[in-house]
Amino acid sequence: MPDTYTFLDSDRIFEQYDANHHNDWISNVDLVMIFDIGDYRRLGDITTVINNYNLITMNIDHHPHPNSNPFSHNVVDLSAAATGCMIYDYLKTVSTKPLNKKSLECIYTAIMTDTGCFRYSNTDEKCHNIVIECLSANVETHVIYQNVYENSTKSRMRLMGEFLTNLQYELDGKLAWFEITQDMMHKAYANNDDVDGFSDMVRTIRGVEVALMIFEQKDDGCRINFRSKGRYSVKDIAKSLGGGGHAFAAGAVVPGTLNTVSEKVVETTIKSIEHKMNSST
């Protein structure tokens, strides 16, 4: 679990997959439940275990998935603003008592982060109604916000300064893109958690419609992250690169060297936005 969210684990019940400690246990489970993954490939090393033991999987998500996805069962609601809303509905259906404060803290955190603090266009009335219930249960929403968004590490600040000085603009500033290299990560003493939210930050720049992050991975390939203010969809761009997501928040993992991937992704993104700009005139 990322350090940012350890405040939700006061009872220390969450565990992170470790092959040496969990493989024997996993081999005997009845069902693997997977939440808000977006793409099966994002499961990483645990996919090998799932496949080796032929485990039954259930995907609970609000992201679209291709019909040929490898999950055994899919519970997907594209209309849900957040997967946390789906979990809330399930718990309300099966629970005979009101949801307790700890459960609501987790649900609030899930919805808050999935809707960009209730700023994204997917935020709906239901999200706010759930928030009202959380407030009624004395959930300290300001404390959750501080833990998630006002708890940056010094390494994150160093990394942020580095990439902001090298921010690139295309299409008269409508597209802003940047690279996070492994060398930058090393110099800043940063980890992957420090990168979260950078694309959202760049999207807030005046005049920028689409923000693009190209994050070099330790192994071959780059993680691509798109954020759009809403004028231009980025889901189709991510899909053309082998990824997916929402209309205005999407991503992909693209194999290849940083230079090769950057050139391909930036060119593809520019062409897509140009086409959309011309189509709207």
TrEMBL record:
<protein>
    <recommendedName>
        <fullName>DHHA1 domain-containing protein</fullName>
    </recommendedName>
</protein>
<feature type="domain" description="DHHA1">
    <location>
        <begin position="187"/>
        <end position="268"/>
    </location>
</feature>
<dbReference type="Pfam" id="PF02272">
    <property type="entry name" value="DHHA1"/>
</dbReference>
<dbReference type="InterPro" id="IPR038763">
    <property type="entry name" value="DHH_sf"/>
</dbReference>
<dbReference type="InterPro" id="IPR003156">
    <property type="entry name" value="DHHA1_dom"/>
</dbReference>
<dbReference type="GO" id="GO:0003676">
    <property type="term" value="F:nucleic acid binding"/>
</dbReference>
<dbReference type="InterPro" id="IPR051319">
    <property type="entry name" value="Oligoribo/pAp-PDE_c-di-AMP_PDE"/>
</dbReference>
